[in-house]
């Protein structure tokens, strides 16, 4: 459009010249508005990305804590599943004692994680 202003063919009439100037001004304003809205949309996109990342961090923290709590009974069960001489293996209520001990360890770990706001 700037080249059209310089060409005499388009600007030989004063009305056409003013109309062309108005079109150029409107075009520049539209470009400026587009840049402004592009920056706004980019900022909103960054904000949404931050919120999603924050929510993901909270979910990962919860899942990690839950995995640790579930791994404690698994570790105890795997140790007592070995075919070696272990404590309480001669007692009549060994299974119950081990289950109660495992439950106590799991509850204590859950309480500690709860107080540290890992849940």
Automatic annotation (TrEMBL):
It comes from the Bacteria. Keywords: Membrane, Transmembrane, Transmembrane helix. One of its GO terms (molecular function) is metal ion transmembrane transporter activity. GO terms for cellular component: membrane. It is found in: Membrane. The chain crosses the membrane at residues 62-81, 93-114. It is a multi-pass membrane protein. The keyword Endoplasmic reticulum does not apply. InterPro entries: CorA-like (IPR047199), CorA_cytoplasmic_dom (IPR045861), CorA_TM1_TM2 (IPR045863), MgTranspt_CorA/ZnTranspt_ZntB (IPR002523). Gene3D superfamilies: Magnesium transport protein CorA, transmembrane region. PANTHER family: MAGNESIUM AND COBALT TRANSPORTER, TRANSPORTER-RELATED. Belongs to the CorA metal ion transporter (MIT) (TC 1.A.35) family. This is Magnesium transporter CorA family protein. It comes from Listeria cornellensis FSL F6-0969.
């Amino acid at each position: 459009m700037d080249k059209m202003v310089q060409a005499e063919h388009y600007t030989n009439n004063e009305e056409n010249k003013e109309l062309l100037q108005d079109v150029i001004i409107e075009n520049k304003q539209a470009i400026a508005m587009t840049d402004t809205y592009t920056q706004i949309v980019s900022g909103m996109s960054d904000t949404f990305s931050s919120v999603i990342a924050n929510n993901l961090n909270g979910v990962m923290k919860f899942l990690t804590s839950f995995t640790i709590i579930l791994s404690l009974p698994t570790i105890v069960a795997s140790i007592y599943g070995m075919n070696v001489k272990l404590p309480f293996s001669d007692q009549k209520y060994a299974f119950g004692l081990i289950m109660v001990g495992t439950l106590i360890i799991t509850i204590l770990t859950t309480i500690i994680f709860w107080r540290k706001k890992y849940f």
